[in-house]
Amino acid sequence: MATQSFKTYFGRNSRQGLWYVPLLITVVGAVILTVYTDDFASPQNLSNLLSQAMPLIIVAIGQMIVIVIGGMDLSVGAIISLTTALLALDAPAFVLVPAVFAITALIGLVNGYSIVKLNVHPIIATLSVQFIVVGFARILRPVAGGSVPDIVVSCVAGTVFGIPLTVFWAVIVLLLGWKLIHGSRYGLHLFAIGGGVSSGQEDAAHNFGISDQRNVILAYVCSALFAALAGFYIAGRISSGDPGVGETFALDSVTAVAIGGTQLSGGIGSLHGTLFGAILMVLLSNGMNLANLSAFLQGAIKGAILLLVVSLQSRKKMGL
Amino acid sequence: MRSLLKKLVVGTLLAMTAASAPVLAADVWLMDGVEPRPEGNATVEAGKFKKDGPWVIAMSHFGVNANTWTVQTAHEAQGIADGDDRIGKFIMLDANFDQAKQVADIEDLLAQNPDALIVMPVTSTSADAGIQKAIDAGIPVVVHTGRVENQNFTVDIQGGAENFGKVMGDFLVEQLDGEGKIWVLRGLPSHPEDINRYNGLMQALEGTSIEITQEDHGSWVYDLGKKLCETFYLNDPNVDGIWSSGADMTRACVDVLKQFGADIPPITGEGNNGFFGQWIKEGYPSIVAEYSPSQAAAGVRAAVALLEGKELHKHYIYEPAGWNIEKAKKYYRDDLTANVWWPTELPEDKLQELYGKK
Question: Which region is the signal sequence (chain B) (predicted)?
Fold first, then answer.
């Protein structure tokens, strides 16, 4: 039993993926940076690190939900941009915040419906929606600027009993993600749907009585809502709206999920792997900044390390 | 004797006072063409940020690798920093035109306790929070090559994008005698520099009968500029003038027109070696709007001046007049590649190392 449990979490063919690979590299990287740089372990920098990682962690959790079912959501970056643009409109927070989440849920619905009902490939569907959403964001706010309601900034930049609010964000978002992915029947259904997709038996989950279409649509709605949450966090950090601020998040979130051991073919992955994947990506940027590596070199080094981490996790068969 | 002694004492005191007097803001040279803003300017008092060296100077660059101009700005800043022994450490981070990354970059820079912070903002708000944190920590902030909404910075040097666009627009108005059809090749969509340059063009066109028949964003790069001009030409080849927001797009558009065997109408350019070579060879009507990458060197110079305790103005502007072909000929270097931007402060050995054809 113990052996089985160990294999479930750590085995090479675990359904949770090789989540400990990014964890190990993150720990080794953190130790090296602590030894070789002056400021890495300072409270200020560790706080910065968490704040910088938080939007990617949030959006990567949503991205993981759709990747587990064998999909992909390339509209998350545009949703982030739209969220900041909406929050910077001249209206009270009690109108803006619900509106943001209602609109983004609708975007997720459009993504899911296009994929499930119109049979459009997830990459094409979400890429098309991305263009539409970016267009709306640029109509709302052609240039970065404006200001978001004070309460949005307070929810992100404040402290409670001296503890940065980012810590509470981390706890809440991870608990929510954990419940959705590993602690609910819905999460189990996601893995079942993805497992079928990755093994070429797309109807497998459906044949076991799982409503795959509804669950897939819901997965894209979840992804959009997590992206909106990340957009909310970013809007609080930059205190303004920017129609281009989310541009890098679509690919960064896919990368973080892949580094975390989630298979892009679906059916395998874990929340903790995604968390470590996102942290590793931010740690790389932060570490190279502190190590004063040339701005010309940073991109190349980051790409090489990411390729190495993902290649360490290649696998040939489905998980346990 | 007593009178002579008195004169000597007074003279000595006066000389000492003069020697120890702070350098006035008007005396600080940042770069050729950079001047204090004539209206609504404040002064950063002498000695406010004075510190003994060696200094740590941090710089957040909006995007080093976007194009050849941005690459050169990074070299210009690094060059000035490397040549000053009092700068113990110069840290430059590349935001890669990502607003969220610039926020993170500035946090990472401030975590390293710099003595001064230089910011080239991605957008007008991307550096606001970082600037405030630096100012709150008593760190002087120099902003250049892009405006920010947070006006709490210490010094800013702005390249006058409206002036840039207007210099080009005025040239077309003059060449076309106030009427005709023009194409407009813009820079990066939503980038403040692009919008302000375009606003400058609009100011120049006001009250004229010049009509913009085709307009799109070429993002200041050659290949996109080429695609745009090909599309414009195939759509309607009748054009009397071309307003191009960047030299790489100008070169691309001239190449397209040559490819179609069309005459080259008046077209605007920039201080780029590749453009100069083409302009001098082809001789088409053009003008250069100056926008030197040495603004990045001026930013470092301003940071150094603040740490030296010199008095500076809060706002500096950089609004030079346009160049004609005779001036371009003085700068053009056949032994260097198309990627050099003029004027530059890079020394000859660095120019050869980075841009030498051999």
Answer: 1-25
Identify all chain B residues contacting A237, using CB atoms and an 8 Å cutoff.
Answer: 100, 103, 129
What is the pLDDT of chain A when averaged over all its residues? 87
Crossing angle between the packed helical segments B99-110 and A271-290, to the nearest 10 degrees: 60
Which positions ≥6 away from B145 have C-beta within 8 Å? B62, B73, B120, B121, B157, B158, B159, B193, B295, B296, B299
| A309 in a structural domain | no
Q: Are B296 and B76 in contact (CB under 8 A)?
A: yes
Residue-number span of the structural domain to which A95 is assigned: 53-277
Cα–Cα distance for residue pair A21/A312, rounded to 1 Å:
8
Q: Do A143 and B124 touch (CB under 8 A)?
A: yes
Q: Which amino acid is at B310?
A: K
Question: Any CB–CB contact under 8 A between B170 and chain A?
Answer: no
Superfamily name with CATH number, domain B161-289? Response regulator (3.40.50.2300)
- CATH code of B22-158+293-319, in short, is 3.40.50.2300
ipTM here: 0.73
pLDDT in tens, B280-316: 999 999 999 999 999 999 999 999 999 999 999 999 9
Query: Which positions of chain A have pLDDT values less than 70?
Result: 1-17, 295-296, 313-320
Task: Inform me whether the C-beta atom of residue B68 falls under 8 Å from chain A C-beta atoms.
Answer: no
B22-158+293-319 and B161-289, same CATH topology: yes
- Which of the four pLDDT bands, split at 50, 70 and 90, describes residue B19? very low
Contact B109 A289 (CB under 8 A): yes
pLDDT of residue A10: 61
pLDDT tens, A70-115?
999 999 999 999 999 999 999 999 999 999 999 999 999 999 999 9
Residue A3 distance to chain B (closest CA, Å) = 43
**Cis before B343 (ω within 30):** yes
Residue B129 contacts A, CB cutoff 8 Å: yes
